[in-house]
Amino acid sequence: MIATLYAVSIAVLTIYGGNLLWMAVCYARRDTLRPGDVPDPDDLPPAPEAWPDVTIQLPLYNEPLVAERLIDACADLEYPRGRLEIQVLDDSTDITGERVAERVAFWRKRNIDINHIRREHRQDYKAGALQNGLQLARGRFIAIFDADFLPTPDFLLRTIPRFDDPQIGVVQTRWGHLNLDASLLTRVQAIGLDAHFAVEQQVRRDQGCYLNFNGTAGVWRRACIEDSGGWQGDTIAEDFDLSYRAQMRGWRFRFLGDVEVPAELPVTMSALRSQQFRWAKGSVETARKLLRPLLASDAGRRIKLQGAIHLTAHFVFPFILLAALLHAPLLISTRSGTGAGPIYFGLMSFGLIGLAGFVLVQVFAQRDLYPHWGRRLRVFPAFMAGTIGLSLHNSKAVLEAVLGKRSAFVRTPKFNMVPSPRASAEAAPYDVRQPVPPIAWLELTLFLYSVCGLALLIAAGEWMAAPFQTIFAAGFGLVTLATFSSRGL
Fold first, then answer.
1. Residue 1: its pLDDT value, please?
2. pLDDT of res. 383
3. Residue 341 to residues 7, 24, 47, 186: CA-CA distances in angstroms?
4. Residue 136 and which of 163, 195, 425, 481 are 20 to 30 A apart at CA?
């Protein structure tokens, strides 16, 4: 039973890791010298004959430290003033509403078309706020920014001209990092996000596969939203959901890897947990909703295959957890003569294909984005360990989604890591000591379990298996340490 379950976990991880290897190969093949002059990154795309009306939507919920920063950045966007509208979609229940009202009044006196839109409820959470704002918007194009983003002044000048084809429904840009080097936690997060934007999104674009709108730092054609059924609140990944519904309707997405919008990475373990839980659960909820319609559609085989892998990507976490639980018992039972034989372990070695894909996409992303990319990769072992350490937490999210358990849209706290006169004085609302989440005690147990397994493997002379067991122990140990230290214990 142990050998069978372990084989299943490795097989699943090999499939998803093998897909990453395919992406890495596709990326390497496109990474060649191209004829002509090197493009100037400061050059803007040709302007349209007439600039269309654009509505910027800023969905907020209790963001007192960053709301004003975001509003100011959007008010400073370079675009014909008569063609620009800003909606602050504020569902806040704290002092954020007062701050927003003051800032909106400030900019309205300076002839900025900006509106403060409040609801009496949070029905459908972010999706509901966006849909409500859409009914009041006048723009043909809808730009969306979450509270922790800071668009550069030329954002619209770089994105709106890219709707040169009437079938383009979305233009998505790449996320940057405002606080990349704030801590090991932020550097580790950046590794994973960079791989998604620099490799995964670009390869999907180049191969004609479905992309996903990342919830922020992008622009929608309004007709695309309306034609695809609008924002819906039956998942907590409203962006992923609408992305696939739109592309199954025939709309095309465009990804601009050369346009960066910086954002603030979560700086506490609790903030990262809430973000990861929402992404994991929301993506599986979307898979439950749309996987069958996708496979039944007339899309090509490659689109269906990549779409299925994309929608179900978070299913890897239960199998990572399973592998972590079974790795030491499998090797110890084999050592005692009651486990699997050499043929079994020869077949399991194919799992290195998945590991190679996982590693290569991170390497290519760092090389693409940073001149000193080798230094960035020093935190890759911590990233790998952290991915394992969060497997229990994310597996819980996957299980809840599979069982159809509904949950609220939990916001990710933002702390305004860009120097601000108010930032340090007003961090208090997020600095309240909270009880350790129950799952943290299970993660501590898994850390101790993994350490015991490592000790047994070393005692049994299984030196080849020790490095992998060390990664399991380090992963649960890092997450446990980050959780307890962030709670002040």
1. 84
2. 96
3. 13, 33, 66, 42
4. 163
Q: Give the residue numbers marked as catalytic.
A: 91, 239
Pick from 357, 366, 383: which is nearest to 189 by CA?
A: 383
Cα four-point dihedral sign 373, 376, 378, 384: negative
pTM of the model: 0.92
Instruction: Judge whether 366 and 377 are in contact, CB under 8 Å.
Output: yes
| Structural domains of the chain ordered from first start | 2-26+313-486 (no CATH), 50-303 (3.90.550.10)
Sheet harboring 252-263: ordered strands across? 114-118, 84-90, 54-60, 141-144, 218-221, 168-177, 252-263
| Higher local confidence (pLDDT), 244 or 339 | 244
Cα 312 from Cα 287, distance rounded (Å): 6
Strands 168-177 and 141-144 come out as unpaired
Tokens of 312: 């179900």
The HSE-up count of residue 448 (CA atoms within 13 Å, CB side) is 5
Sole residue written with tokens 């050499």: 342
Answer yes or no: are the C-beta atoms of 52 and 171 closer than 8 Å. Answer: no
What would the two tokens of residue 350 be?
């194919």
